[in-house]
Amino acid sequence: MSAPQNDRNDQEGTFDFIVVANRLPVDRVVAEDGEVSWRRSPGGLVTAVEPVMQSHDGAWLGWDGAPDGPEDHLDESDMTLVPIALDADEIERFYEGFSNATLWPLYHDAVAKPEFHREWWDTYVAVNRRFAERTARIAAEGATVWVHDYQLQLVPAMLREARPDLKIGFFLHIPFPPSELFVQLPWRRQILEGLLGADLVGFQRAGGAENFVRLVRQRVGHRTQRDVVHLPDGRTVHAAAFPISIDYEGLAELSRTDEVSERATEIREQMGNPAKLLLGVDRLDYTKGIYTRLKAFGELLEEEELSVEDAVMIQVATPSRERVDEYRRLRDEIDRLVGRINGDYGRIGRPAISYLHSSYPKDEMAAMFRASDVMVVTPLRDGMNLVAKEYVACRQDDDGALVLSEFAGAADELKQAFLVNPYDIDGMKAAILQAVRSQPRELSRRMKAMRRTVREHDVVDWAERFMTTLRAE
Ligand code: GDG
Q1: What pTM, to 2 d.p., does this model score?
Q2: What are the pLDDT digits (tens) for 353-403?
């Protein structure tokens, strides 16, 4: 797909808009015979930054997802991809270790125990420095750089030191924790100072921005005024909420195609045309609340509030971070629970839960969203949760019900969902039953309002709001 450019140095200092993220929007796939291919992995972020890339000389800097990759630029139609190579040790310490076994659990209410290892931290610093140095080399004078997420929190300060002429924005896709949790981190001050290199630090929810400003005041000692931090050198850093969204029109259009409509009907038939089809779609991650959600559904079957004759569930659990121990344990626990529920309540040809541990193309996901009557999104903590918004975008007939955790960022906007505390299993059971039993008029009222919200605040709108605020800094 992309044509490698041989001279990696030929575009230094030329880009005036640069996205810096842990991952590139492409994956390098190395087959067993050693053959290398590139696969696009277009997430929401690509759609969001496309309009900005088109009007700029844009680049996207990130890791290609496999060890020891090439670092030559790759030319895409509207941007240049700049790969950063990570070796196997760095992947283990920076990515699986500090990013996904220290920061990820700590920032999600410590729902799993964060591990603190000094050698993981050292590698986190070294890899952040590599990202910052490469960005500093390719950025044009006065360029705008947008750094993303928890893997790269030191990049803003490192970059500012090398290139004070740049406009630097940072967006955190996951929650920013309250001070009581954050202060556990042995390197808390370095992280705060890293983020303070940005002109604008964006969070999913207002609470994240408040936590950050409070911590900066308490732990770094800078003066703060509402959402602005005043640094001793006169520079200011603005912290604010920018709730991320999805490509509403793109997904709505896909969900309306004949192929997706037919496939949705087929899915219902294959599930035995139940009166109600429930759906869960998550990365297989302990923050997503998959276990308690399935437990709640199992109890409803046990108590005969529901029976497999009238309600069955599909749970997609996309494989994720499979080399991290905590994720392996979670997979085993869920396997056992699904086995038990199906063993106890399923019958031939009709399992209670169709559990799918794999990933699917976008159109298949859209068909599942269209086929399902109740979408159950119950994370214990989640920055936003795009799945909730995607379900809403696919419900073109204004039907269907969304059961949503109040601990997902999406709950701030999707107020007409059946909101639940995912730790309260009885409350979750009550909400699922309410969703299953609600009258179509009630569901339609709720869905219409939620659809309007997501339509009016899509991902392009999100990127524009962030960029407009950043430009004004
Ligand atoms: C982080 C934050 C925040 C999942 N399985 C398949 C598939 N997916 C897609 C979903 C959705 C995306 O992956 C997952 O996004 P989420 O928002 O639900 O969760 P995280 O991956 O944890 O994302 C989160 C997000 O960043 C953005 O800021 O909302 O809070 O944790 O788009 O549809 N897509 C396909 N096949 C699958 O099997 N095609």
Answers
A1: 0.95
A2: 999 999 899 999 999 999 999 999 999 999 999 999 999 999 999 999 999
* Cα gap 170→470, rounded to integer Å: 10
The yes-or-no verdict on residue 10 having pLDDT over 70 is no
Q: Is the pLDDT of residue 415 over 80?
A: yes
Pocket lining: 360 vs ligand 1, CB cutoff 6 Å: yes
d(CA 470, CA 208): 18
Which of the listed residues 49, 283, 286, 377 should we mutate to test ligand 1's pocket, taking the one with most ligand atoms within 8 A of CB? 283
Sign of CA dihedral 161, 163, 167, 168: negative
Angle between helices 362-371 and 248-256 in degrees, nearest 10? 70
pLDDT band at 38 (very low <50, low <70, confident <90, very high): confident
3-state secondary structure of 238: strand
Domains of the chain: 15-244+461-472 (3.40.50.2000), 248-456 (3.40.50.2000)
- Percentage of the chain exceeding pLDDT 70: 97
Alpha helix segments (H runs only) across 72-165:
88-90, 104-107, 118-138, 155-162
Which of 104, 315, 385 has most ligand 1 atoms within 8 Å of its beta carbon, as the pocket-test mutant?
A: 385
pLDDT tens-digit readout, 422-463: 999 999 999 999 999 999 999 999 999 999 999 999 999 999
> If we measure between CA atoms, which residue out of 38, 101, 56, 21 comes closest to residue 287?
101
pLDDT of residue 321: 85
Which residue, by CA, sits nearest to atom 10 of ligand 1? 387
Residue range 95-131, pLDDT digits in tens? 999 999 999 999 999 999 999 999 999 999 999 999 9
- In order, the DSSP letters of 385-419 are -HHHHHHHHH-TTS--EEEEETTBGGGGT-TTSEE
Residue 32 burial (C-beta neighbours within 10 Å; 0-12, 13-18, 19+) = exposed
Bridge-based pairing state of the strands 74-75 and 139-148? unpaired
Q: Which band of pLDDT confidence, cut at 50, 70 and 90, is reported for residue 324?
A: confident
Quote the ligand 1 centre to 86 CA distance (angstroms): 24
The dihedral built from the CA positions of residue 243, 440, 364 and 328, taken in this order, carries a sign that is: positive
Region class of 289: left (phi > 0), else alpha (psi between -120 and 50), else beta: left
Place of tokens 């392996």: 328
- Cα 64 to ligand 1 centre (Å): 18
CA of 386 to the centre of ligand 1 (A): 6
Cα(287)–Cα(126) distance, rounded to whole angstroms?
28
**Residue with the nearest Cα to atom 15 of ligand 1?**
386
